[in-house]
What does this fold into?
Amino acid sequence: MKIINKSLAGVLLTTIAYTAQAEIVTTVKPLGFIAAAVADGVTSTSVLLPTGASPHDYNMRPSDLQRLQQAELVVWVGQDLETFLSKSIGRLEPKKVLQIEKMDGIQQLLGEALHVHAEGDDHGHDHGHNHTHDHDGPPGLQDEHDHDHAHGHDHSHDHSHDHVHGHDHQHGGLQTDWHVWFSSDISEKIAEQIATRLSQNYPAKADLIQQNLVEFKQSISAKQQQLRKQLDPIKSKGYYVFHDAYGYFERQYGLNHLGSFTINPTVAPGAKKLNEIKADIEAHKAQCLFAEPQFTPRLLETLHKNTGVTLGVIDPMGEKIALSKTAYTDYLQSLADSFSQCLAK
It folds into this structure.
């Protein structure tokens, strides 16, 4: 009889543990911000990648796979961003997976980023702007981009920067920018899809889910107005970023992105490029170089010492922000604060 009781107890404990972990799981924290807003009062949200990890090079652990299997919904961007997840995601039921790159209506909202090969071409000036730049560089170095931008934002400010190091923009071609959480428009679409899935899982809470969605969109609209006022005074000030990820946010607020030093944040430019990059920074009169807390920016520290340009920090993953109903707008505010604090100096 005791053996039977122990067996039953084991089954009950397993069932309780499974139920407790049946939650929304997002790959990266900014997606968790979106999910937490919609799921507030309905179900819990957690993030797969631990603090400091990058979706570009993460290695799955057995415990990660278990979390995915127990989740009621897994939200990820797709194979182009979270390559590590491609095989594991195929083991899950399709109804438990929200793949952002396959969402209806997503294509017209996507921007582009410059793909730079790591070998020999690692100084990547990706402008990520889908509007016209007029470069007033010397003859032969002028580089005019005229990307058709579908977001409906018209930022026609001029960027006076020329590529003195002779970088070939056509080397790697353009690819889709999958850092979609930096786009408020795309984030709202993601929230809509999460709300639809949750309403199917929790029909009795459909009204609450819809209310959360409406409040999420309203909070974004209000935050956008606030951030435009905050960032408008620094729009003309040029800067470089360590990791090319912020294109959607930069376009939204018309920021003067001069370039990035690497596409993959785990691959830094070689030492032989330092002098060329230094000359580039000086030619463009950059106001700030942005590092990231997830990576040791030795390159940027060296450039800071050699050029005197201010060194700032942007956290693309919002690591210091806790998951909550207001986390996404808190995240947008943190990005704006990082830009304004460095560029206003």
Remarks:
- The beta strands are 24-26, 45-47, 73-76, 97-99, 112-114, 174-176, 238-243, 256-262, 288-291, 310-313.
